[in-house]
Amino acid sequence: LHPYGGALTVNWMLFGSSNKTMYAPIPVTKRFQYREEVPNNVIKSIVKTSDFRGIRNPHAVSLETSEGTVARTTHAKGQIQKEQFGKTGASDHMLPSKVLLLYHYRYLSESEYDRKICERGHMDKNVCNHK
């Protein structure tokens, strides 16, 4: 974050299950090779700790209000991420992808996804079948 400080927002690149149904003891980068064609608009924020004030949501942060402390995007050198000041601050619709992306493995194999949902639950409903 030098020389700017503040935060850097990074868009997600989503990976799917690659039609895998069972777990295999292989690194996810080898198991799941297929991804979306374009980056996702959802971001994660990398924050300079001295500029961190709090968490807005799992994707965006609140920063100290000192001069020059803003969230920046990887779209262009030093460019301010304007959506950080929006309703949620959780997205960057410019979809910058030439410098940095966060690979997000949304779904692992079908069996791993089912297990995760049963253990952690789902935000909308109880979908565990307790087989």
Structure, described:
This protein is 11% helix and 21% strand. The protein has helices spanning 28-31, 110-120; strands at residues 7-15, 43-47, 52-55, 61-63, 71-73, 102-105. The strands form two sheets. Strands 1, 2, 5 and 6 form a four-stranded mixed β-sheet that branches. It has 131 residues and is α/β, with parallel strands linked by helices. The longest helix has 11 residues, at 110-120.
Topology:
Layout: E1 7-15, H1 28-31, E2 43-47, E3 52-55, E4 61-63, E5 71-73, E6 102-105, H2 110-120
Parallel strand pairs: 1-5, 1-6
Antiparallel strand pairs: 1-2, 3-4
Helix and strand content put the structural class at: alpha/beta
Report the principal-axis shape.
elongated
Distance between the termini: 48 Å
Oligomer: single chain
Largest sheet: 4 strands, mixed
Would you report the number of β strands? 6
| Mean pLDDT over the full residue set | 82
Q: What order do the SSEs take from the amino end to the carboxyl end, as H and E?
A: EHEEEEEH
Give me the number of helical elements: 2
User: How much strand content do the residues show?
Assistant: 15-25%
Contiguous runs where pLDDT drops below 50 for at least 5 residues: none
Give the % helix: 10-25%
For the CA atoms, what is the radius of gyration?
18 Å
Features:
elongated, two-stranded antiparallel sheet
Concise synopsis of the structure shown:
The chain contains 2 helices and 6 strands, in the order E-H-E-E-E-E-E-H. With 131 residues, the chain is α/β, with parallel strands linked by helices.
